[in-house]
Amino acid sequence: xxxxxxxxxxxxxxxxxxxxxxxxxxxxxxxxxxxxxxxxxxxxxxxxxxxxxxxxxxxxxxxxxxxxxxxxxxxxxxxxxxxxxxxxxxxxxxxxxxxxxxxxxxxxxxxxxxxxxxxxxxxxxxxxxxxxxxxxxxxxxxxxxxxxxxxxxxxxxxxxxxxxxxxxxxxxxxxxxxxxxxxxxxxxxxxxxxxxxxxxxxxxxxxxxxxxxxxxxxxxxxxxxxxxxxx
Length: 231
Prior knowledge:
2 domains
């Protein structure tokens, strides 16, 4: 029999010949030795765990541990390590997007990533704009799973993203637009949500003081929202 030449074919052939015990032992050893594999495993099969620990807090700790692993002795992450860290986080997000991953795990991982980005900006070389890409990827993941959430959870998620958008640090880091895109879409057919978004923009405008660029930017965002909802 001709052996497969593609990587997928080779993997399939190996798995077919391994016993259940061999597979379990391999996964166990791999999870203990490879932190990225372990984190992915914990996300994909989180519903098998009976932990009462808040899910988002669990992922915040997971991200904190990842950041610590990639930082130097001074706590700073240089450009090469930054790429490795971002690759690891994107791997988690890829796992969260799988159909087999519980939706609650997906949303809480995304929220943990979003809240980790501002602090990460102070301790990482971001000349490659990793934070912006991560924010976009994370918000896209949230948008993808939003429609399958129960209405109550949708409302909670909207309120949470609105709360995060209210933090000026996201605007300072040019990470606000991805959050606003979610709010804009989720409020399109809901007047109450639209009002909440406009009030939040009004509050942000009050913090601009003599920063004319910031003021003009927020006014442009407000007008863009109104135009989008009008159509």
